[in-house]
Amino acid sequence: MAATLFTNVRVIDGDGNQPFTGEVLVEGNRIKQVAKTSEEVEKIKAPEARVVDGGGQTLMPGLIEPHAHISFCNTADLETLGDLPPEEHTLETMKFAKVMLDQGFTSLFSAAAAKARLDVVIRNAIDAGDIPGPRMRAASPELTPTSGLGDVRRRHMHRETFAITCDGADEFRKTAREMVREGVDTLKMNPSGDEFIPFARAHETVMNEDEVAAVCEVGRSRGKNVAAHARSAESVKMCLRQGANVLYHCTLSDEEALDMLEAQKDRIFVAPTLGMAYITGQGEGKDYGIDYDHPVALFFRREGERGVENMKELKKRGVRVLPGGDYGFAWNPIGTNARDMEHFVELLDFTPLEAIRAATRFGGEIMQMDVGLVKEGFLADLILVDGDPAKDVAILQNAEKITAIMKDGSFYKAPSGRRAAGAVAAE
Ligand SMILES: [Zn+2]
User: If you measure from the C-alpha of residue 417 to the centroid of ligand 1, how many angstroms do you get, rounded to a whole number?
Assistant: First the structure.
């Protein structure tokens, strides 16, 4: 069995513990041993292993994105996604899967595909080894009611959208079942609106409880995740009453919603998607018509403040709050996803190690895979970083500083012998 021994590395285990200098042995696709002390290092016997001298660099879990949209193609509007033909769209999605892996993301939990089978076929091709990309949990498109977020159709002409519109519990149930047939891991629904949709604002709850229940029932009975775009307080409560397990945004939660989230903290995941709110609020969408004074930017600043307070409160109450900032749009492009960890530090008062833990340990939990920790028995998804993310988490946004990327025990990006700080001692 092929083995790799990382020596002379500072290990960030992904569980919030202080980094330590040690050695990590990978055998096959799993982490076989983690040595923290010189005595433990002595015990590692792996004469056949390829030795990678980390030169004091940081070894940590591969990054995990809990709210991925690799088929959103960095468009500036929602209509473009429906206009893209499936063939081009598949190739684009394939390209962005590689972009994520190039940035050190070895796992993606998708928060919606832009067409029914995009995530599914890309996940399958990656798993088969046909194309490079992270491990994926594939999502359905957003299931949304007529006049909900994602319904970009027009009364006078035919237009495809990136969501699937359903009305009434029966249609939601049927569509959810179709998505199960097509192979998704996650059913995504849009029970609340969003501020940039004039007819379905963020505080509006656009699905009724029967519709939410129908999707959740299919998820429960077929063993699928149910993820919800839930900004309004009422949408959060509906999702919790009906059993959705991934709650995105939750930014407008009221006290009752916070209590309900806390009561189900061992079952659910919350990801606020701070990235989109923050950079839109700061006017970074100005090249696309959303400058600092735009009403949507103003809303995101206000909602951002409320969301920040709610997330701090949820963290205090022990709810798993994960990064993932809706990267996939023109001013929030795919590949810049690691920026969300910096937002967690800057806005939510997480320490860098807590922000990394939110991405990796909790990321592994939302993936429902043995990933996200440098731990014996876990899958060997690891990155080597030329710097100390425990001091400055922003370094993870710089792909050049990620000097090696291992997925499933094999190097996708091999450590370069030319680097002073990351020399390979032996092949
Ligand atoms: Zn999203």
Answer: 39
User: 32 C-alpha to center of ligand 1: Å?
Assistant: 36
Among 163-167, 194-198, 253-257, which stretch is predicted with the lowest mean pLDDT?
A: 194-198
Q: Is the model's pLDDT at 419 over the cut of 50?
A: no
What is the 399 CA–ligand 1 centroid distance (Å)?
23
DSSP secondary structure string for all residues of 267-293: T-EEE--HHHHHHHHTTTBGGGTB-TT
Residue 330 C-alpha to ligand 1 middle, in angstroms?
Answer: 14
Q: What is the DSSP string of 118-157?
A: HHHHHHHHHHTTSS---EEE-EEEEEE-TTSTT----SSS
Of residues 250, 278, 266, the one with CA closest to residue 362: 266
Rounded to the nearest angstrom, the distance between the alpha carbon of 57 and the centre of ligand 1 is: 34
pLDDT of 314 higher than 70? yes
CA angle 240/140/217 to nearest 5° reads 40
Residue 202 alpha carbon to ligand 1 centre in Å:
13
- C-alpha angle with apex 91: 88 to 96, nearest 5 degrees? 125
The distance in angstroms from the start CA to the end CA of the chain is 15
Distance between Cα 389 and ligand 1 center (Å) = 26
Ligand 1 center from residue 74 Cα (angstroms): 12
Which pTM does this prediction carry? 0.95
326 CA to centre of ligand 1 in angstroms: 5
Distance CA 331, CA 333 (A): 6
Among the listed residues 311, 350, 347, 396, the one whose alpha carbon sits nearest the alpha carbon of residue 105: 396
- The two most distant CA atoms of the chain are separated, in Å, by 74
**Distance of CA 12 from the midpoint of ligand 1 (Å):** 29
What is the Å distance from ligand 1's center to 265 Cα?
A: 21
Angstrom distance (rounded) from CA 138 to CA 206: 24
Q: How far is ligand 1, taken at its centre, from the CA of residue 398, in Å?
A: 23
- Residue 415's contacts (CB-CB under 8 Å, 6 or more residues apart) are 52, 54, 384, 403, 404, 422, 423, 424
The DSSP letter of residue 77 is S
For the purposes of burial, counting CB atoms within 10 Å of the CB of 36, is it exposed (0-12), middle (13-18) or buried (19 or more)? middle
